[in-house]
Amino acid sequence: MGMMGMDNKEKIYNKLMDIVKEENVKVDEMLRDHLYTRLGGKADFFITPSTYEEIQNVVKFSKEEDVPFTLLGNGSNLIIKDGGIRGIVINLKHLDKISSEGNTVVAQSGARIIDASYYALEQHLSGLEFACGIPGTVGGALYMNAGAYGGEIKDVLDYAFVVDKEGNLVKRLASELDLDYRTSNIPDNGDIVVEATFNLTPGNYEDIKAVMDDLTYKRESKQPLEYPSCGSVFKRPPGYFAGKLIQDSKLQGTTIGGAEVSTKHAGFIVNKDNATTTDYIALIEHVQNTVKEKFGVDLEREVRIIGEDPE
Ligand SMILES: Cc1cc2nc3c(=O)[nH]c(=O)nc-3n(C[C@H](O)[C@H](O)[C@H](O)COP(=O)(O)OP(=O)(O)OC[C@H]3O[C@@H](n4cnc5c(N)ncnc54)[C@H](O)[C@@H]3O)c2cc1C
User: Fold this and answer.
1) Which family does the similarity line name (predicted)?
2) Which residues of 248-276 are buried (b: 16+ CB within 10 A; e: fewer)?
3) Where are the alpha helices (H) located in the chain, listed in sequence order?
4) Cα→Cα distances 250→145, 254, 278, 291, Å
5) Using one digit for the tens of pLDDT, what is the confidence trace for 234-247?
């Protein structure tokens, strides 16, 4: 139960059921079921709002009652510790509509960015091809300024709607989000992304599809997609490639518990055999220390680690 007594927990549960539909509030939800790594403890509350207004009301409630909340997208860039997350985890899977108007594609933040890129293809719109294999949500992609093969969200985002930390629905231009290599100011501002509008260019269906097929082939042949993982663990250090440094440090195949530095792509750490988050984090640190020792380079994590240590 931790910091939250039973009475308090019931009070929060009842209040959350006033804000979002009853079936969209879960208690003690196993987060590993929502994460690409298949690792991590439980969330006290796991809610899936179905309107922007519900999100606004959750934010206001969280502020008034001092109950923290955490956003969880598709869980493809997150490691959640084995002790789980206290307070409310918000997942926007019910807000997944994608539409288009003129040369724009408008996607709610719970939609998968992969689906937005295929939707753009169907509209003969070019610009989102790079995202056709990134397994995150639109919200997670903005938060991370996700990118691949020379493209990134920054190139195509026009504006977003967010719920700010006061609970207001606010429009933010792309230029106001400080989008940079795998970062944005979304965490600093405490914004929840609810919708994104992408500015695209009319193109030829076959040409757009050919680019997407090529990127899919490259991804499938290079990445160990057969095991749970969180993608590239580290950012590209200036002047180097993380994968090459790890490979040259002879770290591929190294294991701690059930976690392994992938033999197929050195930048990935895979959950090969029932790893715990503790194994996974220990292996990340081992890689960082070894590369620092051998090459004097600091590997900065791209993947985010959140949650509590086990009691
Ligand atoms: C096999 C594999 C391949 C990958 N390839 C790439 C790649 O090519 N390029 C790349 O950039 N990334 C890649 N990734 C990483 C990942 O897919 C991206 O970082 C993605 O943008 C994360 O989105 P998500 O919805 O999964 O976010 P999550 O992992 O759920 O969350 C990431 C962060 O975003 C926050 N967040 C999520 N939704 C919202 C929201 N609506 N509002 C505010 N904050 C929010 C979360 O709180 C968290 O801090 C890969 C991952 C895997 C597993």
Assistant:
1) Belongs to the MurB family.
2) ebebbebebbbbbbbeebbbbbbbbeebb
3) 6-19, 52-65, 113-122, 138-144, 153-156, 186-189, 205-222, 242-248, 277-295
4) 31, 8, 22, 10
5) 999 999 999 999 99
pLDDT over threshold 60, residue 1:
no
* 3-class SS of residue 196: strand
How far apart (Å, rounded) are the C-alpha atoms in residues 69 and 216? 35
27 CA to centre of ligand 1 in angstroms: 24
Closest residue CA from atom 4 of ligand 1: 231
Detail the DSSP E strand segments found in 63-168: 69-71, 78-80, 85-90, 98-101, 104-108, 125-126, 147-148, 151-152, 157-163
Give the pair of three-digit tokens for residue 43: 């969330």
Pocket of ligand 1 (CB under 6 A): 36, 70-78, 92, 109, 134-137, 139-141, 143-144, 146-148, 186, 192-193, 223, 225, 229-231, 304
| CB atoms inside a 10 Å sphere around CB 78 | 25
pLDDT in tens, 140-195: 999 999 999 999 999 999 999 999 999 999 999 999 999 999 999 999 999 999 99
CA of 73 to the centre of ligand 1 (A): 7
The pTM (predicted TM-score) of the whole model is: 0.96
Give pLDDT tens digits for 6-55.
678 999 999 999 999 999 999 999 999 999 999 999 999 999 999 999 99
Those residues with Cβ within 8 angstroms of residue 35's Cβ, 6 or more apart along the chain or in another chain:
75, 78, 79, 80, 230
